[in-house]
Amino acid sequence: MECDVAPVDPQELTVPVSSQFGGQALEVLLTQEQIQQRVAELAEEISHRYQGKCPIFIGVLNGSFIFMADLVRKLDIDFEVDFIKISSYGSETASTGTVRLLKDISANITDREVIIVEDIVDTGLTVKFLRNRMLEAGPTSVAFVTLLLKNEIAILDFSIDYVGFNIPDRFVVGYGLDVDQKLRGLGSLYAFKES
Ligand code: IMP
Predict the structure, then answer these.
(1) What total of structural domains would you count in the chain?
(2) Which of 31, 73, 116, 189 is the most buried (most CB within 10 A)?
(3) Does any domain span residue 159?
(4) Reported pTM
(5) Are 179 and 63 in contact (CB under 8 A)?
(6) Mean pLDDT, consecutive 10-residue segments, the chain of 195 residues?
(7) How many A from CA of 75 to the centre of ligand 1?
(8) What pLDDT shows up at residue 6?
(9) What pLDDT is stored for residue 180 in this prediction?
(10) Alpha helices, DSSP H only, in the chain?
(11) What are the pocket residues of ligand 1 if the criterion is a CB atom closer than 6 Å to any ligand atom?
């Protein structure tokens, strides 16, 4: 069956989207072009650092799946992928303060170079949990790449190795990030307009 729906410019989605989410409008925070350019830069940096190695990229579901897919296709090194599923938000727009492991990795990461791929770091709770979980398995190294660092006040006793963009402390959607599991397919990154 053919799909006869014309492609929609994401910038034009403001009206239909806003009617679904309590009348709140969205505004573009990062365009597709800005995102794609930065993802290419991150892929280049990572390829450079892991030249001659074969790291395993672990995507944090669900939010990182689009970023991960774009990132790995821009690498010029060998790599493997796996996924882990974590819940910290439920259907809310604020962290619940607890992290639950919903799906563990399948790969053996002992003696492997591990790169965790996150969509966004906010409070830092999720990355802390992930780091501890990974270190239990005795990897050679654990690095973090996140497309977005939301909150510069995220309190971490380790650094995030690769950050795509620092963004203001606002709830964002698109490019894999959701509100109540929706809007992940938008190519750009949007924030709900503050009233
Ligand atoms: P943290 O544990 O507080 O750092 O939150 C990380 C997780 O919360 C991310 O992986 C996202 O799933 C989710 N999250 C944080 N901020 C946002 C947002 O603005 N939009 C959508 N999801 C978010």
Answers:
(1) 1
(2) 189
(3) yes
(4) 0.88
(5) no
(6) 46 50 81 97 98 98 97 98 84 68 96 98 92 96 96 77 95 94 93 80
(7) 25
(8) 43
(9) 87
(10) 14-20, 32-49, 65-72, 125-135
(11) 60, 63, 88-89, 95, 118-126, 150, 171-173, 177-178
Tell me which amino acid residue 106 is: S
In this structure, is residue 7 part of a structural domain? no
- Asked if 129 and 118 touch (Cβ cutoff 8 Å), the reply is no
- The CATH number covering residue 136 comes to 3.40.50.2020
Taking CA 42 as the corner, what is the angle to CA 158 and CA 108, rounded to the nearest 5 degrees? Answer: 60
Q: Whose CA is nearest to atom 5 of ligand 1?
A: 122
Whether 164 is in a domain gets the answer yes
Identify the pLDDT of residue 15: 40
| Range list of β-strands (E), the chain | 26-30, 56-61, 80-87, 100-103, 113-121, 141-149, 162-166, 172-173, 189-192
Q: What is the pLDDT of residue 7?
A: 47
Domain membership of residue 161 as a residue range: 33-88+97-183
